[in-house]
Amino acid sequence: MRLLAVLTLALLTTAQGAFALSCLRPDPVRSYENARNSSQAHRIVLGKITLLTPAPAAKGQDPITVKARLKGHELTTKGFTAPYDQTITLSTSCAGPWCGSLPNDTTGMAVLSEHSGGPLLSMGPCGGSFFARPSKEALTKVVTCHRGGKCEARRGR
């Protein structure tokens, strides 16, 4: 009986290692298209995120929510030209042991969803809502797509 218990424990321990998070490679154009096609309102902003309070310590898979300042420029048909300076909510989520992380003092492209409590940047374990230091090429593709041109997301994982 003891041998059976040891073998069961060993099997359970090694089986967990076989599970992995499978994510589609995050892409600014794909994230823009997802936001555009969503029934929920979104804003696409290129700017710097600064946490307004220190992030609390992670407690397992519990989401973390903090307030931050996002200062930069919102996407318009002319590009990232509309000044944007707002307090936003950053929230992480988890999928099993994998959790999103909170950007701080980081410049990037944010895909914000609009909620009754204001703009929300959801940071999931697979990414896709914040792109730190995006390339000029990636930003040009997002603007082209926003203007009604060809939307060219990266392919593959």
From TrEMBL:
Residues 1-20 form the signal peptide. Keywords: Signal. The keyword Signal applies. It comes from the Bacteria. This is Uncharacterized protein. It comes from Harenicola maris.
